């Protein structure tokens, strides 16, 4: 049975998707992973991206050349540093569904995607396709915002809602942190500091501390008058968190934030990578 870690990285050849490829290659080095660069053709995109570079007849050769070039660059840079392989493919279809189907075929462990490529920029708010992909995916998804370039994270911020599954999800966070020697802040944000939050927080700390076996972990309980998402944004800025990580389960507060507030300017989503754990 093949146990190689597999990463699928969709690209539309925009600046943002290239940043996502950089993150995918760096994580691929870390996990000794197979990396799949994947593209779903869209004629409107090519009119913007390539202008007069091709006629409709050679659209596919244009795509293949672009993908081959990316595979060569990634392979030369990252295979000597631990990436197991890099390959590419393109398939026509509806973008989000086609990406998810391809991830299923490859049995991907992680999908890494940029938030603002050509298609997302057509909308009035950030991350249209990325948000749909996160909502629909049953695999972990990492979302890389525009103009966010790779750097080894000094601090990972895990947003908890005191779910039983958090214990398993946080183990994934610890594995990530160990590779980078990062600090982890395990944070719960509530709109009012309720006694039940304090009680749940203390219980979680007592249960998790012996379970984690990692020294650089801080447990944080924060209360903000505004909604939890804005409180989390505020915490990320103050604490200088580098990546926001959350467990995505139906009807959790974070699922509601992610679904309902995309049109608001939430800088944690625009300026920080977001790692959404779907499988525990």
UniProtKB/TrEMBL annotation:
Similarity section: Belongs to the universal stress protein A family.
Organism whose genome encodes this protein: Aquiflexum gelatinilyticum
Protein name: Universal stress protein
Origin: domain of life: Bacteria
InterPro entries registered for this protein in UniProt: Universal_stress_UspA, UspA
Taxonomic path: Bacteria, Pseudomonadati, Bacteroidota, Cytophagia, Cytophagales
Domain UspA per the UniProt entry, residue ranges: 6-145
């Amino acid at each position: 049975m093949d146990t190689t870690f597999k990463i699928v990285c969709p690209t539309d050849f925009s600046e943002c998707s290239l940043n996502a490829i950089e993150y995918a290659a760096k994580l691929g080095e870390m996990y000794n992973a197979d990396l799949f660069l994947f593209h779903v053709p869209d004629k409107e995109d090519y009119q913007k991206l390539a202008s007069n570079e091709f006629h409709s007849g050679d659209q596919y050769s244009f795509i293949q050349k672009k993908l081959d070039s990316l595979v060569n660059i990634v392979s030369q840079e990252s295979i000597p540093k631990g990436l197991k392989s890099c390959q590419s493919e393109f398939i026509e279809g509806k973008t989000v569904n086609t990406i998810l189907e391809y991830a299923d075929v490859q049995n991907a462990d992680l999908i890494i995607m940029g938030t603002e490529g050509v298609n997302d920029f057509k909308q009035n708010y950030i991350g249209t396709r990325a948000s749909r992909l996160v909502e629909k995916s049953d695999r972990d998804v990492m979302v890389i915002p525009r103009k966010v370039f790779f750097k080894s994270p000094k601090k990972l911020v895990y947003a908890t809602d005191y779910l039983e599954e958090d214990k398993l999800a946080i183990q994934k966070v610890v594995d990530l942190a160990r590779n980078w020697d990062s600090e982890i802040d395990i944070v719960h944000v509530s709109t009012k500091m309720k006694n039940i939050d304090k009680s749940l927080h203390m219980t979680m700390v007592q249960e998790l501390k012996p379970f984690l076996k990692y020294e650089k972990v801080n447990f944080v309980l924060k209360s903000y008058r505004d909604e939890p998402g804005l409180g989390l944004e505020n915490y990320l800025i103050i604490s200088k968190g580098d990546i926001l990580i959350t467990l995505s389960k139906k009807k959790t507060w974070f699922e509601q934030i992610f679904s309902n507030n995309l049109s608001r300017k939430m800088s944690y989503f625009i300026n920080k990578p977001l790692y959404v754990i779907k499988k525990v």
